[in-house]
């Protein structure tokens, strides 16, 4: 069997549009994941046992079940349970955001706990409220430690984003399948999209390494 990429050329602009579609929902999802994850992380290190247990349960559910299962439950479950016709885009960012928050919560928690405990004790001794201590003293220092890990989470979400094609969201993978079906030749568009994913991940990886080097120099 011979590969014929010339037949895919007219579809290249259609496929390339999928880059921005993919990155768009991944960026929104990682932002949602960061804020929810940071909140969950703060709950995990709180002194309220019940809330800590809820946070641990939340994390274990999203980390312990397949992402594609979560996506299908959100996309098909919300219309059935809430009678709301959720769009593929909203289902994608909601699922990826909640899933990412479970991983981000562990990243943020580890980053906070890596900060010298003496600073928290000093703030308490000075009478600074716990919330203010976290927001103005602890979290800014923790962010420096967790940025590389957050970049890795962004890269992971970018690769896993291909599964949204199962709910007909026109990301890169879905566009490859559309072109393949139109040409009755699925392999060539899949190879092209595979190269695009690889280039995206390599660019993000280089940006992550650059960020890590800059953080090390600033220490």
UniProtKB/TrEMBL annotation:
Localization per Swiss-Prot or TrEMBL: Cell membrane
Gene Ontology CC terms: ATP-binding cassette (ABC) transporter complex
GO BP annotation list: amino acid transport
Bilayer topology annotation: Multi-pass membrane protein
Gene Ontology MF: a single term: transmembrane transporter activity
Name assigned to this protein: L-arginine ABC transporter membrane protein
Family statement drawn from the similarity comment of this UniProt entry: Belongs to the binding-protein-dependent transport system permease family. HisMQ subfamily.
Residues annotated as domain ABC transmembrane type-1: 19-208
Record keywords: Amino-acid transport, Cell membrane, Membrane, Transmembrane, Transmembrane helix, Transport
Regions that span the bilayer: 20-43, 55-78, 190-211
UniProt-listed InterPro entries: AA_ABC_transptr_permease_3TM (IPR010065), ArtM/GltK/GlnP/TcyL/YhdX-like (IPR043429), MetI-like (IPR000515), MetI-like_sf (IPR035906)
Primary residence: membrane
């Amino acid at each position: 069997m011979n590969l014929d990429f010339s037949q895919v050329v007219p579809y290249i602009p259609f496929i390339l549009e999928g880059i921005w579609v993919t990155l768009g929902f991944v960026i929104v999802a990682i932002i949602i994941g960061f804020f929810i994850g940071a909140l969950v992380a703060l709950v995990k290190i709180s002194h309220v046992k019940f809330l800590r247990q809820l946070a641990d349960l939340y994390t274990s559910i999203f980390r312990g079940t397949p992402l594609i299962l979560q996506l299908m439950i959100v996309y098909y479950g919300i219309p059935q349970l809430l009678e709301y016709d959720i769009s593929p885009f909203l289902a994608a960012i909601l699922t990826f955001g909640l899933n990412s928050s479970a991983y981000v919560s562990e990243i943020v928690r580890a980053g906070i706990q890596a900060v010298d405990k003496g600073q928290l004790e000093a703030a308490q001794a000075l009478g600074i409220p716990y919330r203010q201590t976290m927001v103005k003293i602890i979290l800014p220092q923790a962010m420096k430690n967790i940025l590389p890990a957050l970049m890795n989470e962004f890269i992971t979400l970018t690769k896993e984003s291909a599964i949204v094609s199962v709910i007909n969201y026109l990301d890169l993978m879905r566009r490859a399948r559309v072109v393949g079906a139109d040409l009755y030749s699925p392999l060539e568009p899949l190879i092209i999209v595979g190269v695009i994913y690889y280039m995206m991940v390599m660019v993000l990886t280089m940006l992550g390494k650059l960020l890590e080097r800059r953080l090390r120099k600033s220490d």
